[in-house]
Amino acid sequence: MRKLTPFCTLEQLDSMKQLWLPPQALGEFLMPAQSAFKSDTARDRVLDDYHLLLARWPVSYESRFIDTDFGKAHLIASGNPTASPLVLLHGGGGNATMWIHNIAILAAKFRVYAPDVIGDVGRSTGVRPSYASGGYVRWLAQVLDGLGLEQTALAGTSFGSWLAADFALKHPERVRGLALLAPPHIEPLRLSFMLRAVLATIAPTDSRVRSFYRLVSSLHAPQPTELVMQDFVTRWRSQRQSPPPPPRISADDLRRLPPRTLFLLGQDDALYDVNKAAARIRANAPACEVALLAQAGHTLTVDRPREVSEALMEFLAEVPAPAAL
Predict the structure, then answer these.
(1) What is the pLDDT of residues 46-62, one digit of tens each?
(2) pTM of the model
(3) The CATH classification of domain 31-317, taken from the options 3.40.50.1820, 3.40.50.1260, 3.30.565.10, 3.10.20.520
(4) DSSP label at 20?
(5) What string of H, E and C letters represents the secondary structure of 41-109?
(6) pLDDT value for 187
């Protein structure tokens, strides 16, 4: 049987954003939405789950707001305030509470800041920037400024890994260590994944969204708790539009990534061929570390939380201490 190949690159896919939108939202790229949420009721549902997850946050935390040119940025801070900083960037369609599975291990060593990324279904305000505008990077720079961070270790998962990488390319002097988990911008997306994502977006029934989660997770991983699963369903069904995939990283940008960069890929990631992705990274960024995590899908922070957290701790232990302010 002939092997199916991706039907388009991420750059081509980004020009077909209407595939990711329900029909009533096709015009929203012409006039950006003022909220990531479909309605105030949808926002309330997501924030109800947000607070339920925070009630189960395994370590003490602070909820903070920082003023930016884009609106108020909200973040969750945990760990010793004098410890080395680590900024965690969540995946698209998510918010800071997705780090609930990893925060206990990471906060034991670092002062961890987990912002709700602008334009997504969290507590930060502001319109989702376009990828080409550079708005995401400017927003993150202003968040770090508001925290008083000249330098920080930076880790992101899925969309968050694209943002972390883009920030590191534009502000290498501010990133002392970079960890990219399940990056979606290395290889073209598989047709099978694209079709399932489109179906889950156009008709986001409870069963279809749960089925989509099973696709992006690993069949070999433990099932998430019902609260975590319900939170995923609520967020997916409450967003005004699912985030379009970020542009594919060029070979030149791979070469320009800081040498202190970790790529952590789930062996069962459904988005693309992870072995091809790993080979592309190694060919273009040989100084970077690449690791494949067994029995983990695209949702590797949930599929294998301890293994992911320990991999981050091991990698960041070798990163130099941040420069003094």
Answers:
(1) 999 999 999 999 999 99
(2) 0.88
(3) 3.40.50.1820
(4) G
(5) HHHHHHHHHHHHHHHCCCCCCEEEEEEECCEEEEEEEECCCCCCEEEEECCCCCCHHHHHHCHHHHHCC
(6) 94
